[in-house]
Amino acid sequence: MSINKKTLEKIAHLARLQFDEKSEERMLKDLNNMLSFVEKLQELETDHIEPLQSMTFESNQLREDKVKGQITHEDGLKNAPKKDDDYFRVPKVIE
Amino acid sequence: MALDKSIRDKYRVVIGLEVHAQLLTESKFFCSDATVFGASPNTHISPISLGHPGTLPMLNKKAVDYAIKMGLACECSITEENIFARKNYFYPDLPKGYQVTQDKAPICLGGQVWIQAKGESEEKAIALNRIHMEEDAGKSIHTEDATDTLVDYNRAGVPLIEIVTEPDLRSADEAYSFLTEIRKLVRYLEICDGNMEEGSLRCDANVSVMLKDAKEYGSKVEVKNMNSIRNVHRAIEHEAERLIQLVESGEKVISETRDFDAATGTTSSLRTKEELNDYRYFPEPDLSPLIVNQSWVEEVKAQMPALPRELKRKFMEIYKLPEYDAQVLTDNKDFAMYFDAVCQETKNYKAASNWMMGTVKSYLNDKNINCREFPVSPKQLAGLIHLVEDNKVSNTVANQQIFVKMLEIKDADAESIAIEANLIQESSSENIQPIIDEVLSEMADKVKDYKSGRKGLIGLFVGEVMKRSKGKADPKKTNELLKQTLK
């Protein structure tokens, strides 16, 4: 499998990334290098191996339904690039 | 938009629903922020719900219990090994840039919900594809502001279940009935308040049309933003006609998402499916697998209340009530449980049903209260029913006088009220007969008319006897005795 320009553009769009043509070339090269590196793994015979879904051997890390650990309104909004007294403000979403 | 019936009848409408239900937990799905509705904006937030780097989610057990409950109520199979997944997309109300949901291993698979659409005599099972758990997003507020959208993250991370049907529904009426059942179920289970206006229950509809002899489904359109069950009905009705007209005029149906406008009852395009998001699902590495073993399922099963359909059947089979009664009585859980409790105190089930559907229901509606707040206990109500049954008071007196007093006096016993207020009616012939004799002798003319065929005069005699007994004579008994005397 290799990545062409069209796929790259799609991935970039999904990640909301933008770059110029020169960077695009470099990105294509890098991504394809990574893919061929990982492709090595395809050589392994995995027909009888269950897919690994999780890196932990633990399960059911659960908590009780209790309210705690909230932060204040002020602290929550503190790092927002744009805000008013009540809300986070983001560039207008048109849909 | 009026579509000719003969044209409409050529087509089959195919509908699948996706219903989101906000679970009634105290805290959010993966963090401990409160979930209360209507708080000031951005007050129930934490580094986890705001998606700050380095935070880790931790699963709320109760949300899982609730999802299992719904699965059991819908006869789903409960998945043992649950994996959460990340659904990736960018939108400002989704602070992490992904939603934690379930993709390949939803908690409930298959299952069905029984509906009985308007005008249908038979029940129909609507197959479910799945029920999965996921977190809610925050709320974007689009104002007149020229540059900004406002975001409130109080709702971000609130637990949801999404109930996904197979494309089994065939009309707006069926969709209406399905949603009514779902709302009834979540309310019986007490896992969601079922309020569509406030958005704790939300429904998207996938609608397509096909010629009745066609083999393949038509292209489907997804309709969103219907904030009541009635609006879901309107939106589907509108969309089905719009699609049929498109097909009839030879146009191609584009797969798209459409927005319902309640003011006009029409839909408009939001986005086409070509712009379909690629969500790039992958297993959420921050959450350990969730194993729901049999003993967990059994534990939840033990907490299940009686469900509306079981109660309806019980009311029809054991209490021998007409289907209509059973339906009305089971619309609301507290109402149904109250009725059931009354039936433990009296065997006069039909009378109990009439009281519930009439006097009690109108009182509750009038006061706008729930059956839990109803001041008369099932035992007291049964006492009143007995009083009428034993002919000690008439229905009218029971309704208009004793019931009213029972509402005012706590724990008052119907019979004591009746005795105290001198309301017990006279039904012994020794006491009624003398009044009858008196009345008939004074109205000799009318008696003559009666005997010559004016049988309607009986009402006059009964009325007069009632009047002279100060309303205490049992009208039925009086009627009986009068007829005998006049023979």
TrEMBL record, chain A:
GO molecular function, one term: asparaginyl-tRNA synthase (glutamine-hydrolyzing) activity
InterPro entries from the UniProt entry: Asp/Glu-ADT_sf_sub_c, GatC
Reaction(s) the record says it catalyses: L-glutamyl-tRNA(Gln) + L-glutamine + ATP + H2O = L-glutaminyl-tRNA(Gln) + L-glutamate + ADP + phosphate + H(+); L-aspartyl-tRNA(Asn) + L-glutamine + ATP + H2O = L-asparaginyl-tRNA(Asn) + L-glutamate + ADP + phosphate + 2 H(+)
Highest rank taxon of the organism: Bacteria
Keywords: ATP-binding, Ligase, Nucleotide-binding, Protein biosynthesis, Transferase
GO biological process, one term: glutaminyl-tRNAGln biosynthesis via transamidation
E.C. numbers: 6.3.5.-
NCBIfam families named in the record: gatC
Quaternary context: Heterotrimer of A, B and C subunits.
Protein purpose: Allows the formation of correctly charged Asn-tRNA(Asn) or Gln-tRNA(Gln) through the transamidation of misacylated Asp-tRNA(Asn) or Glu-tRNA(Gln) in organisms which lack either or both of asparaginyl-tRNA or glutaminyl-tRNA synthetases. The reaction takes place in the presence of glutamine and ATP through an activated phospho-Asp-tRNA(Asn) or phospho-Glu-tRNA(Gln).
Similarity section: Belongs to the GatC family.
PANTHER family (UniProt xref): GLUTAMYL-TRNA(GLN) AMIDOTRANSFERASE SUBUNIT C, MITOCHONDRIAL
Protein name: Aspartyl/glutamyl-tRNA(Asn/Gln) amidotransferase subunit C
Lineage of producing organism: Bacteria, Pseudomonadati, Bacteroidota, Cytophagia, Cytophagales
Gene: gatC
Automatic annotation (TrEMBL), chain B:
Broadest EC class assigned to this enzyme: ligase
Signal peptide (from-to): none
Residues in Asn/Gln amidotransferase domain copies: 337-486
InterPro entries for the chain: Asn/Gln-tRNA_amidoTrfase_suB/E, Asn/Gln-tRNA_Trfase_suB/E_cat, Asn/Gln_amidotransferase, Asn/Gln_tRNA_amidoTrase-B-like, GatB, GatB_Yqey_C_2, Gln-tRNA_amidoTrfase_suB_CS, Gln_synth/guanido_kin_cat_dom
Keywords, ordered alphabetically: ATP-binding, Ligase, Nucleotide-binding, Protein biosynthesis, Transferase
GO function terms (MF aspect): asparaginyl-tRNA synthase (glutamine-hydrolyzing) activity; ATP binding; glutaminyl-tRNA synthase (glutamine-hydrolyzing) activity; transferase activity
Gene Ontology biological-process annotations: glutaminyl-tRNAGln biosynthesis via transamidation; translation
Protein name listed in UniProt: Aspartyl/glutamyl-tRNA(Asn/Gln) amidotransferase subunit B
Family of the protein in this entry: Belongs to the GatB/GatE family. GatB subfamily.
SUPFAM superfamilies: GatB/YqeY motif, Glutamine synthetase/guanido kinase
Catalyses which reaction(s): L-aspartyl-tRNA(Asn) + L-glutamine + ATP + H2O = L-asparaginyl-tRNA(Asn) + L-glutamate + ADP + phosphate + 2 H(+); L-glutamyl-tRNA(Gln) + L-glutamine + ATP + H2O = L-glutaminyl-tRNA(Gln) + L-glutamate + ADP + phosphate + H(+)
Entry-linked PROSITE patterns: GATB (PS01234)
Pfam families for the chain: GatB_N, GatB_Yqey
Oligomer status and interactors: Heterotrimer of A, B and C subunits.
EC number, as in UniProt: 6.3.5.-
Function, in words: Allows the formation of correctly charged Asn-tRNA(Asn) or Gln-tRNA(Gln) through the transamidation of misacylated Asp-tRNA(Asn) or Glu-tRNA(Gln) in organisms which lack either or both of asparaginyl-tRNA or glutaminyl-tRNA synthetases. The reaction takes place in the presence of glutamine and ATP through an activated phospho-Asp-tRNA(Asn) or phospho-Glu-tRNA(Gln).
The encoding gene: gatB
